[in-house]
């Protein structure tokens, strides 16, 4: 500590740990074998089962993206669902779970080979969320404007925060 100098290992020092030359690492080269990738689950299925599994893929339901937040009196859920008509939406609430289900329909039939890009989702979609607080299920409102669905869920009276004044 007090004025003593510790020996330092520098690139040219004679520390016995660094006297041995470092050998270059040469990875061993082995031939690459060609492997055939198979879908074992499909091979083991009977033809009827394969058709059912392919049918399941066509019945895929997209998941709806949402924003959910609260104000003093409400829980608000918003989602972008452009191209969906109000009559193609179904919003249900059971216990503490809200489900939004709908379908975005194509207006025209386009052959797969005619696409340059295909990024939009078409077909059925849904989203279920557990509500973090109790809501008044009798007063829920939903509005679809400019491609944005807004669901307003009024907080139940027991879920609202109330400040209590302390008397002295």
CATH first level of the domain at 62-107 and 119-159: Mainly Beta
Instruction: Determine the mean pLDDT.
Output: 76
Order of strands, main sheet, comes to 1-6-5-4
Tell me which CATH architecture of the domain at 62-107 and 119-159 applies here.
Sandwich
**Element pattern in H and E:** HHEEEEEEEE
Shape: elongated
Beta-strand content: 25-35%
Overall structural class, as computed from helix and strand content, comes to: mainly beta
Question: Helical amount among residues, as a percent range?
Answer: 10-25%
Regions with pLDDT < 50 over 5+ consecutive residues?
32-43
Number of strands: 8
Tell me the Rg in angstroms: 32 Å
Description:
There is one protein chain. The chain is mostly beta strands and 168 residues long. The protein has a domain of 87 residues: Immunoglobulin-like, CATH 2.60.40. It is 10% helix and 28% strand. The protein has a four-stranded mixed sheet with strand order 1-6-5-4, with no helix packed on it. A four-stranded antiparallel sheet has the order 2-3-8-7, with no helix packed on it. A hairpin with a 2-residue loop joins strand 7 and strand 8. The longest helix is centred in the first third of the chain and has 12 residues. It is elongated, with a radius of gyration of 32 Å.
Q: TL;DR?
A:
With 168 residues, the protein is mainly β. 10% of the residues lie in helices and 28% in strands.
